Amino acid sequence: MKEKNKKKVFRLQEGEKILKEVFHHHIVIIPHLIACFFILILDFFLMYYLFLQGWWGVALFVAVIIIVGFYIFRLAFLYKHNKFIVTNQRIVDIEQPGFFEKYLNAFSFDKIKRSEAVVKGLGSMIFRYGNLKLHLKEDVGPFELYKVAKPLRLQQFINELLQDNRPKSSQKDLKPMDLIMEEAGFLNDGQKRKIIDLLEKQLDKEESKRD
Question: Phi then psi for 166, rounded to 5 degrees?
């Protein structure tokens, strides 16, 4: 996967407006929060024993609380600042691995062929999260956004934007078959299979009429 237009600051361009902000699903931080919870429970469970040890036991008890509190704060901060933004002109992926480090990848609509939602596993189906792939016109491999909430709905939203932002002149020059194939690029696998089934049924009906 190639990185495109990697910068450190996100600014809206002229005439650009934000349509949607998409965060990672809560599933990415829940295991960390559960681990912090059990560490705090263990710390308070050992509080009486630690206090009996003198000043170092008290210091250890307080240090665990401070460290866990800072870790939760850092976790919440990074969760809020790692996101991707859909505007009326482009899609911007914002990556913030630390407090003082931020990167972004920006993809204008004319550089994107289509988006594809990938939902795998029972947990992804139950909690409604998955990956979103942006298939680019210039790159061989897609740009992938991991563990986003409601990926199927997001895929449909982005594909509709891509379709609305395609040049109208290019659609007129396409042959009917080319136009159908281009439109099929905006569908997911299930929708494509449904169209194939409908076409097969239509062909069967036409053949039966000829006979």
Answer: -75, 145
Structural domain count of the chain: 2
Is 48 within 8 Å of 94 (Cβ atoms)? no
Separation in Å, CA 200 to CA 13, 166, 187, 197: 47, 30, 18, 5
Q: Which of 128, 123, 121, 115 is closest to 84 using CA atoms? A: 115
Token pair, residue 1, equals 């996967």
Query: Would residue 94 be called left, alpha or beta, if left means φ above 0 and alpha means ψ between -120 and 50 degrees?
Result: beta
pLDDT tens figures, 22-51: 888 888 899 999 999 999 999 999 998 988
pLDDT in tens, 67-100: 999 999 999 999 988 888 888 888 888 888 888 8
Does 115 share its domain with 190? yes
Q: Are 36 and 72 in contact (CB under 8 A)?
A: yes
150 touches 10 (CB < 8 A): no
Report if residue 1 sits inside a domain: no
At 75 the three-state DSSP class reads: helix
Same domain membership, residue 131 and residue 54: no
Phi, psi of 206 (to 5 degrees): -65, -40
Nearest alpha-carbon partner for 29 in 66, 81, 65, 67: 81
- Token pair of 105 as six digits: 């990848």
